[in-house]
Amino acid sequence: MGRAVTVATCALNQWALDFEGNLERIFRSIDIAKSKGARYRLGPELEICGYGCSDHYYESDTLLHSFQVLEKLLESPATQDIICDVGMPVLHRNVRYNCRVIFLNKKILLIRPKISLANGGNYRELRWFTPWSKARHVEEYFLPRIIQEVTGQETVPFGDAVLATKDTCLGAEICEELWAPNSPHIEMGLDGVEIFTNSSGSHHVLRKAHARVDLVNSATAKNGGIYILANQKGCDGDRLYYDGCAMISMNGETVAQGSQFSLDDVEVLVATLDLEDVRSYRAEISSRNLAASKVNPYPRVKVNFALSCPDDVAVPTCMPIQWRHHSPEEEISLGPACWLWDYLRRSKQAGFLLPLSGGIDSSATACIVYSMCHQVCLAVKNGNADVLADARRIVNDETYIPEDPRELCKRVFTTCYMASENSSQDTCNRAKLLAEQIGSYHINLNIDAAVKAVVGIFSVVTGRTPRFSVYGGSSRESLALQNVQARIRMVLAYLFAQLTLWARGMPGGLLVLGSANVDESLRGYLTKYDCSSADINPIGGISKTDLKNFIQYCIENFQLTALRSIMSAPPTAELEPLVDGQVAQTDEADMGMTYAELSVYGKLRKIAKAGPYSMFCKLISMWKEICTPREVASKVKHFFRMYSVNRHKMTTLTPSYHAENYSPDDNRFDLRPFLYNTSWSWQFRCIDKQVNAL
Fold first, then answer.
1. Is 60 exceeded by the pLDDT of residue 194?
2. Catalytic residue numbers?
3. What family is this protein classified in (predicted)?
């Protein structure tokens, strides 16, 4: 009869402009799909060139090389007898589109351009592409000669159409179109499309995965059908980690779930589903059927091919499963760890160096590296040859097999405690104990000689010697002396990153890791060009609150008991003199606000789009049990003064793993001035007027 269709989707760790590597991963996914009996294979958005090409999309080379890869795919025997759906940029009548190219047996069936472009947050698709605005319209696309020679076609359909096979009808969506209020799957489903496909380039954000899953399941819950989603995975060259989660859903229920975090470069899901289940599900939805009788039909591209076999009565079909979501602590443990591994192996460096202060932030960063080592050992144990080859190259040992995370940590991770006369013995001991428990190569050094030398140069030139405020100096002097210590630590971090392995008789250099959290960056509570200045920062998009919960997770799951004392200690920069041998400086006292308050300010400023006055209006309600309106006004004013005074620091912020939607990352996510009128005179006057009225 032909009712059981077998389809495949995948999550691929593609890399921007790595055409050779991208092609190899596409071929592997097709081979796996075919070996499992699939008759249709869906890949991620723009998988041929890699999603994150950015302004390289303007270059004709990117278009040329994409077509060269397509040529290799078309002419290969590996792509025969399976419908292949790949993503690449296409120039049509001098307009650049983000497209799906769908082909079968050396013939291109349809080029389907993206209709709704992602243009918020980290996405800038309207900068490079134009949305296809001609609904249910198809034009002729004249193929490049290199493709004509393979396909024998001069032109192919280009536009908003669906595929009609012998047994069913397929319609494509591309990433953002699933999230749009007028998603194409709605009208396509009413027009009889039974299988919806979505190729995505969707990145990880803490607590976001469920939203994507819910959207996919709801797409077929109301309208019936099969929904197949493919996604990019890994770090393809910037701050984002694409988190896989390829999935297949039918009639509102998940039937196949891919991993969200994994070191596997290629992951393929295959499901066999009964088309009659879709048809019977739709049959009793009268409102859907009434709407379907009036729908404007889509152009159909006829395909002389079936996704099912004629005699498939005994073919087993997939049953619904329960989606398992990671906790936020698991997401922090896995996402940044996978991102670090991709960055390390693709940058061809020999490991990481982290200034380990003994505080929560640097300790959380160290735990993420330790988690990365866990993931590497687990992947090798499970037979991942790619990870084993990368690990051997990184440690420069062709016989090495990573089995113990602590032993791998010793090879690829150097931690460094940089003491000064203002450092306490407690933080030194905490850093040393944590380094012992995770296995890192640990260095203890003292920066006092370098600090005295730098301050001495200033004294020789000016004839003045700055003092800390506890010794009678001004706040300007004290802040300058704190900044000197912080900046010297950055210089030393890079020196040791470049030469530590050389001193140990080992090849290669180390990447410097930063450890400023998202809240400190928002407030500007960091020294410009201090240890927050690094090569990359795995926690730069994570809040202090989430990091504390992650530390507790590591205590319980990695048995890192050294973290208990780190958790209980008050956060401190240790840049001011000790009092009776004890730390007198704390972060929250310095900032004039708590980390919990900072998270609230950050979410209101970015996610709720609140300026000073709107933030005040929201907080007098949110905090009515704990603050008077006048106290709220004072807090809001202080935050915006500090935020605007320090915003210039965001222009040099270390590239950080994007994990929060209130990140102040100035690169492309949070675009703001960095020279403000920090008095906010008009805005604060509006607040004062409201306070007086209340």
1. yes
2. 45, 114, 175, 357
3. In the C-terminal section; belongs to the NAD synthetase family.
